[in-house]
Design brief:
By secondary structure, the protein is mostly helical. Helix content is 68%, strand content 0%. It starts with a helix and ends in a 6-residue tail after the last helix.
Length: 94
């Protein structure tokens, strides 16, 4: 990739393709998320990041247990949010 093209990306004159983002990420040894998002814009907060890093070293069965727990908590939270919206709308669907 030519430096002039990178300058166009940086100035907003041009938008990189997914393939260009992938190539840049590989060349810089970073994730594509690092190129696309601000530091705290995406991903777990610092207190959870350490826990997720520790969990990544567990065996597959233990990872599945953690995945199931997280999925059930997220689902419960989603249902509660939907119930609140339903109640706020007087019992009618939006």
């Amino acid at each position: 990739m030519h430096i002039s093209q990178i300058r166009r990306y940086e100035s907003g004159q041009s938008q990189p393709t997914l393939d260009a983002i992938r190539k840049l990420a590989r060349a810089l040894s970073v994730s594509a998320d690092m190129l696309l998002f601000a530091q705290n814009e995406r991903g777990p907060e610092d207190d959870l990041r350490m826990q997720f890093e520790a969990a990544s070293r567990l065996d597959p069965e233990e990872k599945n247990v953690i995945r199931s727990v997280i999925e059930s908590i997220v689902l419960r939270n989603t249902v509660k949010a939907a119930e609140r919206r339903f109640t706020e709308n007087g019992g009618s669907t939006p």
